[in-house]
Amino acid sequence: MPTEEQTVAPTSLRERRRAAATEEILDAAERHIAEHGPAALSLRAVARSLGMTVQALYHYFPSRDDLVTALIVKAYDALADAVQAAVDSAPDGPARERVLVAAEGYRHWAITHPELFQLLYGTPLRYYAAPVDGPTTRAVRRMSAIFEREMFAGFSTAQLAAADAPGLSAELLAHLAQLPPTGQTALSPAAIALMMSAWGHMHGLVVLEVFGHTSFLGDHQAGIFRMAMRNLFQDVHGRIPAAGADPAPADPPTTERVPSTRR
Predict the structure, then answer these.
(1) Can you list the positions of beta strands (E) in the chain?
(2) Which residues contact 248 (CB under 8 A, 6 or more apart)?
(3) CB atoms within 10 A of CB 176
(4) What is the largest CA-CA distance in the chain?
(5) Smallest Cα–Cα separation from 128: which of 58, 71, 45, 64?
(6) d(C-alpha 203, C-alpha 103), whole Å
(7) Residue 47 and residue 28: Cα distance in Å, rounded?
């Protein structure tokens, strides 16, 4: 008699062994990156550290790009997990405080795993190209969805559509309107612009710290980051009209074009 329950077939011993070997290779590659940096990633060195041949490693990762892609996806997932864990541990409070906690979770993971952060956001690896709209893109969208949810929690679609983001060209607004959603709902072009601007400011401070450019601040780097993020999110939320408020007339989009330098 048919039931509504779906029976999941157990994985085979071969599949479990392959999954375990794949994870062991990724762990070894992460250790190699931690010791030598992302640019020095070598399939031969990873294989040697595991006591296997490069040819055997190719059974799991047919190319260097396949291994790099898997490493990037794993790093993005770890970063997203850290951000989500920070949010989950935060006490109930205003949306501005929750998104601040998310930002601090982002910073903490980055300074704790600087080599993996460099793999994600440092100098692109030579000859590597991520698959178009592949697993790395999906991993980035997962993390973006967390920040989107926390940054705009409590705001309605109408409020976000009336957000104040002046100075955007008609071409840019049209481009933003066509972007696929990263969260549960599609954001207005103005909200996307605010999101990208906030992320750029947050990420920029983290990059400066990870690469040692703010080391002169010593133990006060966390304090500077928190102050900057509080001001940043206060500004973003201040650009979204209160519920029921009449939106201020938006500035017309600029149509100025930068002269082309192509020849």
Answers:
(1) none
(2) 164, 241
(3) 19
(4) 72
(5) 64
(6) 9
(7) 8
| Single pTM value for the model | 0.84
Say how far apart CA 41 and CA 122 lie, in whole Å: 14
pLDDT at 58 over 70: yes
**214 — phi, psi (to 5°)?**
-115, 20
Which of helix, strand or coil describes residue 80?
Answer: helix
Q: How far apart are CA 1 and CA 202, in angstroms?
A: 56
Domain residue ranges in the chain:
13-62, 64-238
Residue 263 has a pLDDT of 37
Instruction: Output the CA angle 257-259-263, nearest 5 degrees.
Output: 140
Please give the structure tokens belonging to residue 139: 């991993």
Among the residue ranges 52-56, 124-128, 209-213, the one predicted with the least confidence is 124-128
> Concatenated DSSP letters for 143-203?
HHHHHHHHHTTT--HHHHHT---TT-BHHHHHHHHTSPPSSSSPPPHHHHHHHHHHHHHHH
CA dihedral (143, 146, 150, 155) in degrees, to 10, reads 110
Single-letter amino acid code for the residue at 219: D
What is the CB-side half-sphere exposure of residue 16 using CA atoms within 13 A? 4
Q: What tokens appear for 81 in the block?
A: 């997990």
Q: Which residue has the higher pLDDT, 57 or 246?
A: 57
Tokens of 63: 């190319």
Assigned CATH for 64-238: 1.10.357.10
Question: At the topology level of CATH, where does 13-62 sit?
Answer: Arc Repressor Mutant, subunit A (1.10.10)
CA distances from 180 to 80, 90, 192 (A): 19, 29, 11
| Among the listed residues 205, 211, 193, 118, the one whose alpha carbon sits nearest the alpha carbon of residue 148 | 193
